[in-house]
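User: Quick sanity check before I run a bigger batch. Here is a single chain. Can you write out its predicted 3D structure?
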Amino acid sequence: MREAYEIIIAPIVTEKATRLTDEQNVYVFLVHNSANKVEIAKAVEQVWDVKVEDVRTMRYAGKARRSMMGRMSPNRKPGRQPSYKKAMVRLAEGDHIELYEAG
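Assistant: Done. Predicted structure follows.
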């Protein structure tokens, strides 16, 4: 099994993720593409010492992008954004994760 810090790449802090955290105790993370729900749950429990009730995962395909290095540039090659996987982790009642300090 991989290390917990290899599975969880970064927390996703957006308006929707913050609303989910406040209302439903759900935290959103960017995770490794090949991580499964069991590995994600164990990694979150190990890193933050909380009890995970549910994990939902979503895969997002990378989008095709044009590189615009100049209008007449000979280097205009199509590129791609990387694919990524997102996990929504619901914690047990009373548990929480302190992702950032509100000042």
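The chain has three helices and six strands.

User: Great, the batch can go ahead then.
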